[in-house]
Amino acid sequence: MIQAIKAKIIVTPGHAPIKDSAVIVKNNIIEKIIPSTELKNNYYQIIDLKNSVVLPGFINSHIHLELHWVQKLLEPFKSFPSWLNQIIKLKKNFNNSKIPYWVNKSLNECINSGVTTIGEISSYDGLDYKPILDKKIRAVYFYELTNSTLKNIENKFFQSLIRNKTNPLINFRIFPHSIYSLDTKSLKRILAFAKKHNIKLGMHLSESIDEVKYSKRKRNNFEKEVFPKTSYKPTIETKPTTPLEYLDTLNRNRQHITLIHMNNLSQNDFKILTKKEYPVIICPRSNLYLNQKLPNIKFFMNYMKTGLGTDGLSSNLSINFLDEINFLYLNAKKIINNPEEKILSIATIGGAKALGIDNEVGTIEKGKKADIIAFDLLNKNPYLSIIHSKKRNLKMSMINGKIIKLR
Ligand SMILES: [Zn+2]
Fold this sequence. Notes:
single chain; alpha/beta; Urease, subunit C, domain 1; TIM Barrel; 2 domains; eight-stranded mixed sheet; four-stranded parallel sheet; about 25% strand; globular; binds zinc ion
């Protein structure tokens, strides 16, 4: 079946807007973009989106679908460690059988805001897996490991993920949670395991000022408030450094590690990033929610591998991706040139690069998987139109050549 997605304007990163054209999709692959005047009714199944802007599907590069329920139970907190203590306590007392229900709720919110790929952090040994498959959304699936769950590597579910590379919508990754939840030994073991099985990784890094202090062996609230309650203090076996310097020292084989947050960096950290080109995902609203500073917007808007994430509802006011785009736009406006275009890049191809799937998705061009969305055209500038969009303006969403939403 050959589909033609016809619209007033098509935008894709690295290309000028294309007027009155159609994206031709054969099975699940983008074939070309042609002028609408060349469309033949008997040859294509035409989906006429009329006065819309068509763009690559959004990539919400960092989310915890499973933690939707936390928002209702969270009490006000003063610091990152005190928030973490609440999360640990809440998770302990929660009935896990309800997790798939909340995952489903999160997924609906993602899809309704134009997201076609998620960078999901899975913390409940696969309770999110079936709802993700059922929704037919594309996922980079990060299996989270901490000191206390490291043995999950031997679990049936984990093993099945390593073996099963047949689901075209799922990309499997390993996610060592953070430097403050894993010993140096454990981290090394995870890196070696990932290398052996040729699996890419991801990790929260430099998210809080306490994490930086912890890694530099300065007084910090993890050691004061969190570790005494978990009766476990991870051991760092290197000299005091920043979190990135620490991880980079361990990453001798230059493995692909997607770094999440990166909002507390030193000058040398920026040098390391530029030199080693680590992929990064920023979650600006989550940083403010957790009483932290924003990432360096100017640097990351111009960095080659920056993606954008909402993080979970455990650390944000919403997981509506359009809200995150709006927020980034307002913060970037004064600092960089062409913020409208740059935001589109970060929300699509930037996320794909950060997640290591840019050969598959992130742009509308020949050979890529057909992950395509459309919004009502609300402004004569198509980029600004996307930024002005609300969920109700989503006109179509297609994932892997299948329309999952059409209005
Ligand atoms: Zn996270």
